[in-house]
Write a structure and sequence with these properties.
The chain has helices spanning 6-17, 54-64, 90-96, 116-122, 133-139, 141-149, 179-189, 199-205, 254-263, 275-284; strands at 30-34, 40-45, 73-78, 101-106, 126-129, 153-160, 165-167, 194-198, 224-228, 246-249, 268-271, 289-294, 303-304, 320-328, 331-338. The protein is of the alpha/beta class and 359 residues long.
């Protein structure tokens, strides 16, 4: 009977990696240990910050079962780390365990953690990078972008009518989209590290900015709730109630916001702030992805989703790549990837945000 191939093991490692949390400072990583004959010895994945990395988890699983790993191949979705962080370096753990070969999909771009491949080679371990790299890059695209850019990955959420409105002329905005789209929005909130809104949204809508399950309960993971603006968050605001930590950043500078969130180990930001804040992020050139919920509604007047972006011609427009289209009840979700080769970097406006909470 034919044993498991390296390609099959990497596909399994990618499946395991997806079991880990999408939120948090660490990447999703999976590991499969194979004998030279292709028999799976053990598997592991990373369960979140502060827990054993995927390689160590697999080694421990093998040890608990009394299985020998000396001479085995470790198939890992990300290059094993080589630094002491919350946990010891995985490269050293693999070498010390007698692993003979390490195969990985994606090289680690984090200067603090990279170098695992070189460490392994110096300690007599054969290293083979580049197996299913495209799949690994897609799995880790948010984490990789955050590390490579030196700032959080930014998803801009737009929930609007067909004519681009997020509120009617009288200011009402609930509910433009239907229950399926709103439920999906809560799923996204439960996967990101932080939600960012402007002070105008807080004062106008008094949102809670929580991630909730379909039955209305708080999801296990609650993102940090970030308010941007110079005025104070009201003492009786719902943001001070149950949910994630509240962070008030008294600035209108998008880059200052992202720098502070990076310091807080935020990797993925969801901007829900409304027209002015959304425009500011777009003009700053820091948006990486747009999730646009389109409702089959036309208002003809009311608050637009975006303000003036300073674009005068079609040729100068911001262009996006389409990552997917989903039908959510009567609504449609467009997931768009921002292309860095277009004119997407503009100076951000400095006006006090005065937005409507979306959905």
């Amino acid at each position: 009977m034919t044993g498991t191939t390296i390609d099959q093991a990497m596909r399994r490692a990618l499946e395991l990696a997806r079991r880990g949390p999408k939120h948090g400072p660490n990447p999703q990583v999976g590991c499969v240990l194979l004998t030279p004959g292709g028999v799976v010895v053990a598997e592991g994945w990373h369960h979140g910050a502060g827990t054993p990395h995927a390689e160590v988890a697999a080694l421990r699983t093998a040890a608990r079962a009394g299985l020998e790993v000396k001479g085995a191949t470790a198939v890992v979705t990300l290059e094993p780390c080589s630094h002491f962080g919350r946990t010891p370096p995985c490269a050293a753990a693999l070498a010390d365990a007698g692993i003979a070969r390490v195969v990985f999909a994606v090289a680690d771009p984090d200067p603090a953690a990279a170098g695992g491949a070189d460490y392994l080679r110096r300690h007599g371990v054969a290293v083979e990078p580049g197996v299913r790299t495209a799949d690994g890059e897609d799995l880790l695209r948010v984490w990789l972008a955050a590390v490579r850019q030196g700032r959080p990955f930014v998803t801009l959420k737009l929930a609007q009518t067909l004519d681009g409105r997020i509120a009617a002329r009288d200011g009402t905005s609930r509910w433009i989209t239907g229950p399926e789209a709103r439920a999906h929005g809560h799923e996204v909130r439960a996967e990101v590290d932080a939600i960012v809104v402007g002070m105008g949204t807080v004062l106008a809508d008094d949102p809670s900015l929580t991630a909730r399950t379909p039955d209305g309960r708080l999801a296990p993971h609650q993102p940090v709730r970030v308010v941007v603006g110079l005025r104070d968050v009201p003492v009786d605001a719902r943001l001070r109630g149950d949910g994630g930590p509240l962070v008030h950043l008294p600035t209108h500078d998008v880059h200052e916001v992202l720098a502070e969130l990076r310091r807080l180990e935020v990797r993925h930001v969801l901007v829900e702030g409304g027209s002015v804040l959304s425009t500011a992020f777009l003009r700053s050139g820091t948006v990486d992805e747009i999730q646009a919920y389109l409702a089959p509604v036309i208002l003809g007047a009311g608050l637009l989703a975006l303000d003036d972006l300073g674009i005068d011609t079609v040729a100068a427009g911001m262009r996006f790549g389409n990552r997917g289209v989903d039908v959510l009840g009567d609504d449609v979700l467009l997931t768009l990837e921002v292309r860095r080769d277009g004119p997407a970097s503009h100076r951000a406006p400095t006006a006090e945000p005065d937005e409507q909470e979306q959905h």
